[in-house]
Amino acid sequence: MSREVLKYESAENKATLESIVGDSIHQCFAVGANGRIYYSLNTEFKDKNIKDISDIGDYKEFTIELENPYFQKVKKDGENYYESIAPIRFSDGKFIGFLYISSKAKNIERQKATIMWLFILGSLICVVLTSIVIIYLFNRNISGKIKMVSGKITDLSLGKLHVVANSHYSKDEIGDLQMKIDEVSHKLIQIVDNIRDGAERVSQSSSRMRDISSEVATGATRQASSSEEVSSTMEEIAGNIDQNAENAHKTKTISDSASEGIKHLTKEIESSLSYTKQITDKITIINDIAFQTNLLALNAAVEAARAGEPRSWLFGGGIRGEETC
Question: At a CB cut-off of 8 Å and minimum separation 6, what does 200 contact?
């Protein structure tokens, strides 16, 4: 039926039909293309024409050559039925008739419910079995690996640093975690070794620093005594600086006074130079006048000599010239 092909010989076997359609079958006919019922679960319908069956005789599907199965739900005598009419063909595809199957709906629903419950029960059984298998595998593989990882983490928390050579890590997240924990342990071991080396170097440096501190303390004592001497010297220098500051103030006062005197003297000298220039200008004028007077006297003497009175003009002119001078 699944391939819509039913051999002619198998249609006469009730067990075969029931194995095909199930135990919920109510009525089954093997109807020929001519409408004759050749096989039936109820023998009283055998060799009758399909039209003689009151319930299904008027179905038009029995009058045509069906290509595909036909399904419908009908109500008869107050009960619901599922009916199926499927074509019967030889293996070569030749159409030879119909296969009519009728089943009560309640039987099918009951069978469906039974199948559903069986499916649910089977699913539950599968889930339980699968869970058992998963739990077993988890305890065998994952739980053991987790315990190993937990042990390594506990060792790290307690300061137990050791790395076990293991090149066969599992190819999963737990294997990656184990590898990372071993890497952390290795790094911590290196850090601890470096800290130990550093502590030794610090210890050596502390010894050297202790010696240097002793030398510094001795030097500090010497520096303290020197500091006292320097302090007294600085006090003397401070006193000298104060005296020098006072002397500088006095010197500034004297310098200011001298500067004022020099300014006044400069003004007096400028006034004297002005008076001297005026006197010089007047003397120049007097000399010019005397020179002119001598020239006049000389001219008068010359004229007197020419006139015959040399002495009187000479002496007279000389006396006037001297007076004039």
Answer: none
Q: pLDDT (tens digit, 9 = 90+) per residue, 104-115?
A: 888 778 878 888
Which tokens hold the place of 27?
Answer: 């009525």
pTM for this entry:
0.35
- Number of domains forming the structure of the chain: 1
H-assigned helices in the chain: 14-21, 105-137, 143-157, 173-307, 310-324
Alpha carbon 257 to its chain's center: 79
β-sheet bridge partners, residue 99: 30, 86
First-to-last C-alpha distance (Å) of the chain: 184
Alpha carbons within 13 A on the beta-carbon side of 86? 18
Residue 98: CATH number of its domain: 3.30.450.20
Q: Are strands 37-40 and 25-32 parallel, antiparallel or unpaired?
A: antiparallel
Q: Which domain holds residue 30?
A: 9-104
Q: What is the DSSP letter of 166?
A: -
User: How far, in Å, CA of 127 to CA of 263, rounded?
Assistant: 126
